[in-house]
Amino acid sequence: MEDLKISKKKPSYPISERLHNYLQVYNRNIRLPIFYDDLLRFQGSVVVYDKNDEDTLWVRVYYNEFEREEIDLSLKRVYSILISDGNEHIFKYLSVDAIDYCTFGNSKPFRVKVRNILNDNYTYFYVKKADASRVYGLELEHMLSPYNLNFLVYKDTLIEEHIAGIPGDEFIKNMLPECSPSEKSQIAKEFVKFNERCMIRLLGDMRSYNYVIVPTHDFDHVVFKIRAIDFDQQSYEGKLKIYRPQFFKENFKMVELVREKIQKESIDQYKIEERSIVARRMISYHDRITELIDCMEDDVISIPKHIEMLKEEIYNYTNDLEFRRSKNMGAVLKNALDFVRRNYQGINMKNFF
After folding, report:
1. For the purposes of burial, counting CB atoms within 10 Å of the CB of 138, is it exposed (0-12), middle (13-18) or buried (19 or more)?
2. What is d(CA 12, CA 15) in angstroms, rounded to the nearest whole number?
3. In DSSP terms, which residues pair with 222 in a beta bridge?
4. Each residue's pLDDT tens digit, 264-290
5. What pLDDT, on the 0 to 100 scale, is given for residue 3?
6. 257-261 own/partner pairs: CB under 8 Å, 24+ apart
7. pLDDT of 336 strictly over 50
C-alpha cells in the first residue's frame, strides 16, 4: 500500500464570473447576510474534545457580546435559506449553540450547530471560503453520485449542508471488526463502487477521514453506503492513483476486505454497474453537466505540471488520444466522462485489487 503524497498547499481558486453565472441559473448563488471573513473576527477559542477526550482538531470560538447577537441572527437567516424558504418566522425556534473552527486542511471551515429549542433536534452546516475546485466537486457529486447536495455560494463565501454519517477512519477502526460476514461483503462491494465513481469523475484524496459510512436499516439487515464529504481535491492532482481511494494506506483495511470477500469477476461486474449508473446520470443531467464542464474548460483549477502528468497517465490507461489533446483539467474531465459514456457497456476492465 503506497503512501501517496497530496499537495499540502493546494491554492484556493476563485469563483469565475462564468461559474457564478452557472450557479445563479441553478439557484446556488444567493445573496447571504454573512461572509466567511465575518466569522474570523472571533475573540478567542477553546479546544473541542471528543467523547474519548481526544483532540478533534476543531476549536470552539466565541465573540464579543454585541457581535455574537448579530452573527447569530445572520446564521439563522443562512440556515433558513439553506434548509427552508428563507422565512424569518422560524428564528424564534432556533438557537445557534456552537460555532467551531478547524485549521486542519485547505478549506479552514466553520461548523455551525443549530438547534430547534422546541424539541432539541439539531443539525450542522458549514461556512467556508469559496474555492472553485470544491464547487465543481460539489456540483459533480450532486449530478453523478446517488446523493443530492445542498449548498450556496455568495461572492467568496460557500455554505454547505452537513453530510451525516460515520467518519470512515472511525468506522474502520471501531465498527468494521464487529460487522457480520455478510455486512463485510456488502461494505466491500460499496468500496469497489465508490472507488470507481471517484476515479471516473476525478475526485481525489478520498482517505478514510474524507468520506463517511452511512448505515441504513432495511428489514432484517443493515445496508452500508459510502459518501464523499471533502471535495477540495476535485481535478487538481496529477497522479491518477490519487483519484482512486484503494491506493491510500488509510484505506488498507477496506482493500483487504475486497480481496477477502469479492472475486475478480464480481469486482468487474460492480465496476461495470457503477459506470453504467454514472453514464445514465450523465444522460439525465446532460445539459447541466455540459454547462458545468464548459465552465471548467474556461477556468484554471490546476497547474500545468499536474495537467500534463494526468492526461498522460489516463492515456496510458485508456489508449484514448483525446486525453493527450486536453489543454486543461476541464478538458481532461470532459474526455473522462465522454470515455465512460461511449464505452460503459463493453469497457475493458482491469483487476486493480
Report:
1. buried
2. 9
3. 217
4. 999 999 999 999 999 999 989 999 999
5. 62
6. 257/176, 257/184, 257/187, 257/188, 257/191, 258/188, 258/191, 258/192, 258/353, 259/353, 260/184, 260/188, 261/181, 261/184, 261/185, 261/188
7. yes
Q: Name every residue whose Cβ is closer than 8 Å to that of residue 207 and which is 6 or more positions away in sequence.
A: 168, 169, 245, 248, 250, 251
Is the per-residue pLDDT at 213 higher than 80? yes
Is 128 within 8 Å of 232 (Cβ atoms)?
Answer: no
What angle do helix axes 132-144 and 17-25 make, rounded to 10 degrees? 30
